[in-house]
Model the fold of this input.
Amino acid sequence: MDLGIKGKKAIVCAGSKGLGFGCAMALAQAGVDLVLNARSEGPLEEAAEQLRACGVSVTTVACDITTEAGQAQVLAAAGPVDILVNNAGGPPPGMWHDWERADFLKALDANMLTPIMMMKAVLPGMMDRGWGRVVNITSQSVKAPIAVLGLSNSARAGLTGYVAGTARQVAGAGVTINNMLPGIHATDRAVALDGGVAQAQGITMAEAKAQRCATIPAGRYGTAQEFGAMCAFLCSQHAGFIVGQNILLDGGGVNATL
Ligand code: NAP
Done:
């Protein structure tokens, strides 16, 4: 399918690895020029090289997207953009009694306020030009809380509320905002989460993974490629009527009718 976005320009935040990279690759394959961000320069440049092989231009910006300075750096390097993919690392696991105010502020900054500030910055230009696509990578924890990820449950719920209201205010100008909710995907983040389970339960990584797979109807972890394909579709010309949705990609893991 021709996604109809060849020649458009996208910012992909936190995109050198994992789900962000999956989104960047799918957009590059659709002919979208990229401004790619992550903190570590080496992996960022390696990712950019792979993406350039698709024939698109890739500008790299090595910075922490959860800081005001990092957001300003990415926005300045990008200039006007048609597509924004918001992403950042997820908060650490723990239990409800572990976190202090400072921990919540850090999670809110990374997983709620950073995407909101990025949207605030790019939405006016998109609306003026009459076309735009924003995709926020959130989590299945928005639909069903994950006990050990209370910081994620909280911060991402806040972002989801903001998107629900804002998406409906900008849709008339040809701009869509949607959220993608990953269940478990085979990325470094999954390795870190499985590592926590293995350590806590005194089991091997393979056992921790098998245990998690048993809770997923699809019986496996998702891939960054599958995730990226959905992102590119949401950013395509065909997705202009999809507004303010929360799209679960979880292999059926969340047991809910709707
Ligand atoms: P990942 O494999 O660990 O990749 C994270 C990417 O983000 C890397 O490119 C990393 O590069 C970059 N990054 C992290 N923090 C950053 C920051 N502050 N500023 C700029 N770049 C940053 O993670 P993932 O699995 O793709 O997860 C992406 C998001 O989806 C996370 O928020 C995660 O919590 C959420 N999620 C993932 C899963 C899953 O199963 N994988 C499930 C639910 C939710 P640098 O380290 O070089 O910055």
About this structure: The chain has eight helices and seven strands.
